[in-house]
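Subject: for your reference before the review

Hello V.,

The reviewers asked for a structural picture of the protein, and I figured it would be easier to keep everything in one thread rather than splitting it across files. Below is the amino acid sequence we used in the manuscript, unchanged from the supplementary table.
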Amino acid sequence: MNCPASFTRVDNKGMFHVSEGCKRLESVKLGGFAKVTEAGYSSILYSCRNLKKFEVLTSPLLSDSVIDNMTGVARSVVELRLSSCSLLTSEALEHLSSFRKLEVLDTSGCERIGDQAPFYISKVTTLTRLNLAKACITDVGLALLGAGDLPIVQLCIRKCEKVTDKGIKSLFHDDRKICKTLSVLDVGYIPKITDAAIFTIATAAKALTDLSLRFCNGVTDAAVQMLMDRPNHNSSQLQMLDLCSCRGLSAEAIMLPLPLYAFHRLRWLGIGLTDIVAKRGIFSAICEARPRLVVCGVCCDFGCCDGWQWHKVR
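And here is what came back from the structure prediction:
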């Protein structure tokens, strides 16, 4: 995972040999097979008739037809991850509705996935976790996804740079199921996200616990204050908040004394590469007032273990 590898001497023939011995497997994860095409992956799919989890990472020759070849296992697959596959397009997901038990879909890094994909995804009524990071979707795509009324618990649209505040609003339109179920949301690296989107999220997402706004320069102090200090509001349930490199935040975005309910449930706060870091003197007071809170002053994603005083990247 951390040291990307490419198995340049393995081709489809190698996959054919592997498929002969994996008929009883329920989980398959393959990464870095630069010379394997859909024929090689399909041989695995034809062999594993009880497949529940299928994951392919960084496969430049994987095309849309691989999902067509999954019809035999579509009724059993619960988790499907096709990450950083450069040939994959929205058309690959056209028959996704035949996956009757699918709960997890990850197409992160597939930059040719466009607005048609959310329309196909919206037909999968069992879906709870969706990762569309770096997809070429717009506000139109988010509106189509919202119209599907899916019980999504975790949603990542990181680096979907064409999305705006309007798209976020349409995602939560008309009190859809996602308003009640969404717990983890990542809208990082989207330049057009502003305070208006944060207000929408905080108001509509009633179950939200983890929110990533990394590198969203349009987010200002007003959004942070709104997330901090409203008792009994949806935003008071936040447990993890990532503000890393939100350049629109001033050093005074978090000020003492803290309101009574500020950070009441927060367990992790990321403020790396913001002007807030310059106010290191307030962190000890914040941590004293909220002893279970970890404040990360570097650029970790959710969940590093150490606080600002003795931070070690893990």
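For the response letter, the relevant points are probably these. Residues 209-313 form one domain. The chain has a mean pLDDT of 90.

Happy to draft the paragraph if you're swamped.

O.
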